[in-house]
Every structure is written in C-alpha cells, then in structure tokens.
Design a protein that fits this description.
Order of helices and strands: EEHEEHEEHEEHHEHEHHHH
CATH topology of the largest domain: 2-enoyl-CoA Hydratase, Chain A, domain 1
Number of domains: 2
Low-confidence stretches: none
Mean pLDDT: 96
Structural class: alpha/beta
Helix content: 40-55%
Strand order of the largest sheet: 1-2-3-5-7-10
CATH superfamily of the largest domain: 2-enoyl-CoA Hydratase, Chain A, domain 1
Radius of gyration: 19 Å
Shape: globular
Largest sheet: 6 strands, mixed
Length: about 260
C-alpha cells in the first residue's frame, strides 16, 4: 500500500500535518494537494482540534511545485499555470488563512517557491536555524504565488519583498527572523519542542478570538483608521457575547487560570 503523502498525528488539542515526499523535498503534486486540503478541512471541523502544525518529512519543509508532476507537463506555450493556481493553490492558501484555529508552520529545512509561501500563509512560522526560504519563482520566469504577492510586502515591506522576489536568493532562517518574515528561528534540536510548546500555548487560548484577530488584522490593512476602529467594535461586539469572554473576565477577577472552550 502506498504511504500517505500527508501524515496526520494528534497530540491533545494539536493536530500535526506532515508533508510526506521526503525524497523530493516534499514538493507539491496534485495528489499531495488532494490529501492536504481535506486534512485541513477535517482539522477545521474537529472541535477537539485547537491548533494545527504543518511541517515536512525528512530534510526539507517543501520545495514548492514538483515540475515533473503531470499537472505541470505541457507543450511549450500551452501549459496553463494559472489553472494550476486556481485548482490547487488558491483553495490551499485560502483554507489556511480561514482556519478556525491557529496554524503554525514548523520549517525544518528548505522552504522554496509555493512551499515558502505556504509557510508564510500560516499564522506563525517557527524555523530551524538550518532552514532557508527561497522565492524561487523568478528562476523559471514566474511571479510569487500561493499568496506570495500579498504576503511578502505586508510582512517585510515593498523594498525587501521586491528584493526577495526579483533575485530568488536564499534567505537564512536567522535573516528571515531579523527582517520580520517569520516569527522565530530556533536551534535545530529545539525545533519540535519549541513549536509544539507554542502550539499548545495557543490551543489553550480562546480559539474564536485568535481566528478573529487574524481576520481583523488582515481586513484592517487597507482601511483608514476610522473604519478599522469600526471593525474592532463590530468584532468585539460578537466576541463579547461568547462564553470565552465571560470565562476570561471571571478568571481574571478570581485570579485563576481561565479554561476556554469556545471553538
């Protein structure tokens, strides 16, 4: 029996999805997409799951699109790369960005092309010191995809986004952390422990508020100040009616740890 291309493991409230094509640095194929998206949907629907970690098997996180995959094979000038984006990468990126729980990328090696931007789609990225990020698209005459054109300038500003995208140079995890592209760079030996500790920390927080924090920050980016405050008021109105708000206030007043249950 063929081994799954996406492995799923659960540790309490944390679901880990591992891209499982280590011999090909976990590069994407149509079949991997066909397993990863449903795995994310399943995690989103499982009310026991309160955080998701995405990582890669072996020595790489994800090298991007496998150019040998049948989905990418066509006569010169006839391959519709846009159709591949619409069929696979749009659903994947929008699913990650709309998860009802926080999503962490645990980057254990190279993250290139769509693999780099899949990581950046996640709420937080923890990378091993030996890991690297490469916007490799320019090397084959393309632009960043899997949300890269939207994510890069928002994370590091236009100048650095252009530099990363136009050169396609390798960026170390340490430099990625320094420029604000990722949340944290840690020693290789600590990657698993540090990532899982962060995932469990987030899993203990109010899930709805975490998801709404992501949504509000993204939505406020193009707004003027007054509209952003209106968005805040509307979001707080909704969250203020949830049980987790009442629990948080009660725990604060009683000087005890809160137990959040909303999802």
């Amino acid at each position: 029996m063929t081994e799954p291309l996406v492995l799923q493991t659960t540790s309490g409230p944390v679901r880990t999805l591992t891209l499982n094509r280590p011999a090909a640095l976990n590069s994407f194929t149509a079949q991997m997409h066909a397993e990863l998206l449903p795995a994310l949907d399943t995690a989103a629907q499982d009310r026991e799951v309160r955080a998701v970690v995405i990582t890669g098997a072996g020595r790489g996180f994800c090298a991007g699109q496998d150019l040998n995959d049948p989905a990418m094979v066509g006569a010169p000038g006839e391959l519709d790369v846009g159709a591949v984006i619409e069929r696979h990468y749009r659903p994947l990126a929008t699913r990650v960005r709309s998860m009802p729980v926080p999503v962490l990328a645990m980057v254990n090696g190279v993250a290139a092309g769509a693999g780099a931007n899949l990581a950046l789609c996640c709420d937080m990225v923890v990378a091993a010191r030996s890991a690297s990020f490469i916007q490799a698209f320019i090397k084959i005459g393309l632009v960043p995809d899997c949300g890269g054109t939207w994510l890069l300038p928002r994370l590091v500003g236009r100048a650095r986004a252009l530099g990363l995208a136009m050169t396609g140079d390798k960026l170390s995890a340490e430099d990625a952390e320094k420029m604000g592209l990722i949340w944290s760079c840690v020693d290789d030996a600590q990657l698993l422990d540090k990532t899982m500790a962060l995932a469990h920390k987030l899993a203990a927080l109010p899930s709805q508020a975490l998801a709404e924090t992501r949504r509000a920050l993204d939505a406020a980016a193009p707004m003027d100040f007054a509209d952003a405050i209106t968005l805040e008021a509307n979001t707080q109105r909704t969250l203020g009616r949830q049980a987790d708000f009442g629990e948080g206030v009660a725990a604060f007043m009683a000087k005890r740890p809160p137990v959040f249950k909303d999802r």
